[in-house]
Amino acid sequence: MKRRTFIKNTTSTALFTGLGTLTSCTKATKKHITILHTNDVHSHIDVFPKDHSRYPNLGGLARRASLVEAIRKENKNTLLFDAGDFFQGTPYFNFYGGELEIKLMSMLKYDAVTIGNHDFDNGIDGLYAQLPHANFELLSANYDFRNTIMNGRTKSHSIFTVDGIKIGVYGLGIELDGLVSQKLSKETQYLDPLELAQDTEKHLKLTEQCDLVICLSHLGYQYENSNKPDDIKLATNSAYTDLIIGGHTHTFLDKPTVLKNKMGKDVLVNQVGCYGINLGRIDFYFEPLTTSAVGVSIRV
Amino acid sequence: MGLFLKHFVFFITIVLCFACKQERLKLTEIQANRVEIDSTHPQIDSINTFVAPYRNRINTVLDSTLTYAPKTLTKDDGALNSSAGNLMADIVWSEANPVFNKRTNKNIDFVLLNHGGIRAIISEGNVSARTAYQVMPFENTIVVVELSGDSVLELAHYLAKSQRAHPIAQFQLILDQNNDINTIRIQGEKFNKNHNYYVATSNYLVSGGDNMNFFKNALSITETDYLIRNAMIDYFKKVDTLKAKIDNRFIKLPQS
Predict the structure, then answer these.
(1) A199 vs chain B: nearest CA distance in angstroms?
(2) pTM for this structure?
(3) Which whole-number Å values give the CA distances from B136 to A71, B85, B92, B165, B224, in the listed order?
(4) What is the CATH T-level fold of the domain A30-286, as seen in this structure?
(5) Using a CB-CB distance cutoff of 8 angstroms, which residues of chain A are in contact with residue B48?
(6) Residues of B in contact with A40 (CB under 8 A)
(7) Which residues of B touch A88 (CB under 8 A)?
(8) CATH number of the structural domain B77-118+141-226
(9) What is the pLDDT of residues A197-219, one digit of tens each?
(10) Which of A169, A246, A280, B144 can bridge A37 by disulfide, Cβ–Cβ 3.0-4.6 Å?
């Protein structure tokens, strides 16, 4: 008798759960992930003056905050990234060593950033000193910090699961020689970014089964020198990266550059200039495998 | 009955697992937008309130007038030397030499900076410490490098080839019509190839910036730990007007 009740209960629970799951399965047919990004903000916190020759009345962190908040209200499945060089460029950095920049980025709920060459401007110790204020991850797959104070404080990649969608994100930094004195970067080792990118994207896609793979790159958009790694070379050499969020060259792209990776699949490269003048926004839509949609429609 | 139920539960479970496996999603659409941060986006008060004390402190320190510029100084007003560049290089010489001399009993022979290192113009009117931050936002220090005569010659060739108004002081370079070196003078004296020279520059350039590779052959390097920006502020405090102008320190001989 007791056993009977148990089975009855199990059945109804199973049926109930089953129906619930089925409904939720059918309900969540389409999923929507929003990726927001900045690069090379260079300590620009205030709005540019109205009489500024290039960026009159543009930018400003308090405005970026309201924009990000509005987008998050519209789609709670939103991630916010920065592609490096958040430090250096206004007295806020000279006076406070980046404390304010990091605190504000935490207030805006940045999810992850990569490290730009200017983020070493107060030395690796200067960057380390601001880490307690950072509620976001520092990602770099090709800076080896093992012999520095930053050891263990950065990750090569991170996985964000948003609305059931797995988003793998990795970071890449530019060659330090000629840009950052060794006095500042100390024992930081720069490793080949294209090589590390391939290892990391492969891990994220094949081992971790990520639905989306995003690179935060401070390599720069494009160089004529064929030996100097850039985002274009990175894109065409990649196999599993869907989006490269770039920085360093302060390139104002009106829209992402769409390239074919070495598997013949589309990969997007985007960069939104500098100084917090723009916010990049990329929306990704997912549908069940059974959908009739073929390929990915890219509207840029 | 019991058996049936058991099987039913089992069956349902299988179906559910299968149904949810089908749930696997694929990327079907990407849409991109660049959103300009302009005045249509309201400012969040709590952010401004948070920033205010930091901003006020900076403004108090930076906005007191230190000197005056009778006319606007830029790095682009001359072909091979410029008003802003000459001012910067002269400041590095006048402010850093006493520091270097006190420590080493030697003197700086000349100064070389880079054109790209000047990040803003100095507008006509009052000049404050903020001006120095705009012109020189980087934490670059003045470094004195001892170079052989050969390396100095390489430096001169670098300047001749670059055709850019890289700031120099106490160094004169005259190019002929073919951009070959006609004359090099250091502190007004003729350049001596057998002599070593002390060159003040930025730590950025010594560490390989702008590919000034002649610095790689430094015979000695003295880090003054004196920020270029602080040298500017110290100079601004000493003078009442900035009189820098284009001169003949780096020129090309006219068509004869």
Answers:
(1) 22
(2) 0.75
(3) 37, 12, 12, 17, 17
(4) Purple Acid Phosphatase; chain A, domain 2 (3.60.21)
(5) 62
(6) none
(7) 137-139
(8) 3.90.780.10
(9) 999 999 999 999 999 999 999 99
(10) A280
